[in-house]
Amino acid sequence: xxxxxxxxxxxxxxxxxxxxxxxxxxxxxxxxxxxxxxxxxxxxxxxxxxxxxxxxxxxxxxxxxxxxxxxxxxxxxxxxxxxxxxxxxxxxxxxxxxxxxxxxxxxxxxxxxxxxxxxxxxxxxxxxxxxxxxxxxxxxxxxxxxxxxxx
Length: 151
Fold this sequence. Notes:
Blueprint: H1 2-13, H2 31-36, H3 49-64, H4 67-82, H5 85-100, H6 103-118, H7 121-133, H8 136-145
C-alpha cells in the first residue's frame, strides 16, 4: 500500500494541470480512489485543495492503467525511491527545465534520449567517457545545441 501511495505522489509530481475550485471531499471520491488514497483519509479535509485534486487525479490515472503498465509504474517508482534525495531534486529541476522548453525543443530532447537509450551499454559508456574528456569549450559547443542543458 505504501508503494501505491508513493507511486501516486510521483504521478502527481508530473501533473501539470490544476483546476481551481473548492476541493474534493472524501465522500466525492470513488470507492476505488478512497482505497488507493486510504493513507490520506484522516487528514483529507485539511489537505490543500490543489493537493486533493492532484491525489485524486493520480488515483484515477493509476486505477485506469492496465496491469502491465501499473507494474512498470511500480518498478519506476521503486527506482525513484532508491535514489538519493539530491539526485531526485536534480531530476525535478531538469523536468521543470524541460517543461519550459518549446514543444519543438521538447521533441528534440525526447528524440535524443530515445537515440541514447537505443545504444548498447558499451556505446553509452563510450559517449559518457567522451563527454568527461571534452574541454570546457567543446562542452559549451555541444550544450549550445542542446536546449535542455543550455538552461
